From TrEMBL:
InterPro entries: Immunoregulatory_rcpt-like, WSC_carb-bd
UniProt key word Transmembrane helix: yes
Locations listed in the record: Membrane
Organism listed in the record: Sporothrix curviconia
Cited Pfam families: WSC
The protein, known as: WSC domain-containing protein
Biased composition (Polar residues): 238-249
Length: 282
């Protein structure tokens, strides 16, 4: 009788345990909370990976596996999981506008099924604990497609203690970024060339003006020299240094004007206007 009772109690316990296990909900997104130093903490469910870069697919993925063992070990401030097993790492959160309700992140983690590791097209994002404050959000235009298109990823494997293999990725600069840098360099070069050309044109104009002024000065000097030479070599004397502008001419002297310069045979005291009858002996 006692054995039958004990067996019934044991069976009821197994049934209760099975029922409790069945009632445990899988793939529940942990609520967002304040970052903790060196601990991966969920920061929300996002519909975009932003600038995060795919690292690896983990058969036993979890918040600790992706956020701490992989991304934190790489020195990344942010980690994220999607589709239960895929791990992403980066230095910024996805765009703040892509933050959605936690219900969309419902894929059970492959290493710890009660927690959610993103979903189909959704990412559970972690702060890895390396940078508690000041972690930026990606630009609003960032998306999974643009992230993959704007970067080239190189992967390598690293074996950690315990035999865990980690895929380390390295992102190179995209052609779009290079093109932007090239355009910026071209614009800067054009500005420099324009400034140099403008300076050269200004210098040439100044030089031309100076040459014209020097030529005018030389021509004026030649004219003055010619005038001085004429005054010094001719009958007209050059202006005196006393500043007088009058020209001395001997013909204008009052004394000289009353004096005859010629010695003719006609007497000045004779009147030659009247006819004089003269009688001579033939």
């Amino acid at each position: 009788m006692k054995f039958t009772t004990l067996l019934g109690v044991t069976a009821a316990g197994f049934v209760a345990t099975a029922a409790a296990a069945t009632s445990t909900k899988m793939g529940v997104e942990q609520p967002s909370s304040t970052p903790i130093y060196m601990q991966p903490v969920v920061q929300g469910c996002f519909s975009s990976s932003g600038d995060l870069v795919f690292n690896s697919t983990q058969p036993f993925n979890s918040r600790g596996e992706c956020g701490q063992t992989i991304c934190q070990a790489m020195g990344k401030a942010v980690g994220a999981s999607t589709e239960g097993s895929k791990c992403y790492c980066g230095d910024s959160y996805p765009p703040n506008s892509t933050l959605v309700d936690d219900k969309y992140c419902n894929a059970p983690c492959t290493g710890y099924g009660t927690d959610a590791c993103g979903g189909t097209g959704y990412w559970t994002v972690y702060n890895t604990g390396l940078e508690l404050y000041g972690v930026p959000y990606a630009n609003e235009t960032s998306s999974t497609t643009s992230s993959s298109a704007s970067s080239t990823t190189t992967s390598s494997t690293t074996t950690l203690a315990g035999g865990q293999t980690v895929f380390v990725t390295q992102t190179s600069e995209s052609s779009t970024t290079k093109k932007s840098s090239t355009n910026t360099a071209g614009i800067a070069a054009g500005v420099v060339v324009g400034v140099v050309a403008a300076a050269g044109a200004a210098g040439a104009a100044i030089l031309l003006i100076r040459r014209r002024r020097n030529r005018q000065i030389e021509e004026e000097h030649r004219r003055n020299a010619a005038v001085n030479a004429f005054f010094n070599g001719g009958s007209v004397k050059a202006p005196s240094t006393s500043g007088s502008n009058s020209i001395s001419d001997s013909r204008l002297d009052p004394v000289m004007s009353q004096r005859r310069l010629s010695d003719g045979s006609i007497a000045d005291n004779e009147d030659y206007s009247r006819r004089i009858l003269r009688v001579t002996n033939a």
